[in-house]
Amino acid sequence: MSSESLANLLKEERRFPPPAEVAAAANVTAESYARATADRLAFWAEQARRLTWSTTPQETLDWSNPPFAKWFADGELNVAYNCVDRHVEAGLGDRVAIHFEGEPGDTRTLTYAELQQEVCKAANALTSLGVEAGDRVAIYMPMIPETVVAMLACARVGAPHSVVFGGFSADALATRIEDADARVVITADGGYRRGKPNALKPAVDEAVSRTPNVRNVLVVRRTGQPVDWTEGRDLWWHETVDGQSAEHTPRAFPAEHPLFILYTSGTTGKPKGILHTSGGYLTQVAYTHHAVFDLKPETDVYWCTADVGWVTGHSYIVYGPLANGATEVLYEGTPDTPHQGRWWEIVQKYGVTILYTAPTAIRTCMKWGDDIPARFDLSSLRILGSVGEPINPEAWVWYRRTIGADRTPVVDTWWQTETGAIMISPLPGVTAAKPGSAQVPLPGIAATVVDEEANEVPNGSGGYLVLSEPWPSMLRTIWGDDQRYLDTYWSRFENRYFAGDGAKKDEDGDIWLLGRVDDVMLVSGHNISTTEVESALVSHPKVAEAAVVGAADPTTGQAIVAFVILRGSAAEDDGLTEELRAHVGQALGPIAKPKRVLAVAELPKTRSGKIMRRLLRNVAENKELGDVTTLTDTTVMDLIQAKLPHASSSEG
């Protein structure tokens, strides 16, 4: 990608200053940026002191063998103790840790004292199964309290966990069990999804049949559906865990002790096991959760809607919030079960004050209509967050206006599985927010945009997003493959981390994410970001969501093909294509006009909400689709393919 021609097409003039009451009581103020700039390592050492250490670290960063960082390496701590026990010891045992809402409507409340007992019993159970520090444990679970307990129990005994999202296939699970050499798998009979039990145990049985080193499968009874059983290997959670002692003395581990492996899809087909360790990771997730969400643990009710199978669930459901003593909501199901107002019903029921969700979910709620959230009392909300992909400005504004009553700050966060914690985000009490922009690196983070030659681009230009200094929660390597770690993240720009995102700096120097460099389209010699064209389309009142791809074109190299979901009240008509093309041309310029526009009922998305543009590109180019197993709904592509021959197209 030639960064000179990655045009700044989208102009966004709206600004939203922090509400006075948020600014006046903000956890983190503008002064933090100056302090972190003056002495970055002293700043992170100060944040590490927010945790409880058995051995206080004297050395902050060892960067003697880049890019293999060691943070707080001479310090020792127990991650689970920091997330649970220390709050109980501080007299907060009666504070609610988790409000659990099952999809069928069943509920449970766990205080910190109760959570401590459950984690201790589970830790004792793992020990009874022969799990020792350093052994890997695979977790394949629904969104239930036992999932959080299992993760914390692993952390307590020093056994790195590998959580595999419960929607993944037996094949994907087997690959991850094998790569990590996990000896114990924790799962459930099933979970509830879209109103019915969704079996998990059969996939585990199939995966374990291919991974002979697994000794035990620990099974939570959630749905009560029948399961196959292998005597001696399979154990019920309630029979194995519930009878254990609720006393367990946590052991301190070095800060660089592995905490978890989390697999991301690899371009080679072999998943990458991202390794995160303990002290640095917990320091940054706890600090960023405190700073970005302005958490007041005494009064806030926090809800992150992600699944624990993704990094967002690790960092901002389990480790960050619990390290900070937060009260949080854990919801098992989907946003539209049993009705499209379920999320807002939960906000109203628990008095949620901080909501953290994905742009794709926000756009889905836009599509369903403003009247649905309007039925519920959302006045408790004070901070809204966005995670997972760039959020287009119109969805940002809808989120603030319709969900936040036009008074809540929206924090648009950029980070990755690999970074471990939030890296770029507005601060709700400091930043005048710009819809669609992650804006500025957090205090202590060094991020910028560079060109092909690794030179920092001037304001108003686009290029590649890089991280130029190590950060505490950074991945330490790819599990079992240091060379792949070097090749994947550190080979493109010397001594700078690059994970494949394009970005631009606006005239103020604020950062706008443009999506994966792989998703940049080359149209008549111009590099155009899919993100910007999608944002222009969604700014049209008829469009709820859009996905854009560049398809091979004999004239222009690539032609822009747009797939749009219309808002509930909008109807497809003969003039729609020209109307939307003209709208994009007005917003971004004639070069960015889509050649074809297709109205579709749904877009192909993974369970984490990411749009699979590869599949749309294959459809647009009449190619074989390839693997569709990670889609939430594999029938979506059949519907899109059936529609394609009747699509409108225009030139010019």
Output the keywords.
about 650 residues; alpha/beta; Rossmann fold; GMP Synthetase, Chain A, domain 3; 19 helices; disordered N terminus; disordered C terminus
Give the CATH class of one domain: Alpha Beta
> Any idea what the shape is?
globular
Query: How is the biggest beta sheet arranged?
Result: 7 strands, mixed
Contiguous uncertain segments of 5+ residues: 1-6, 646-652
In total, how many beta strands? 31
Question: The CATH topology of one domain, please?
Answer: Rossmann fold
Average pLDDT level: 92
Beta percentage is 15-25%
- So how many helices? 19
Query: What's the CATH architecture of one domain?
Result: 3-Layer(aba) Sandwich
- How widely separated are the two ends? 24 Å
**Strands side by side in the biggest sheet:** 5-4-17-16-18-19-20
Helix content range of the residues, please? Answer: 25-40%
Coarse structural class: alpha/beta
Tell me the radius of gyration.
24 Å
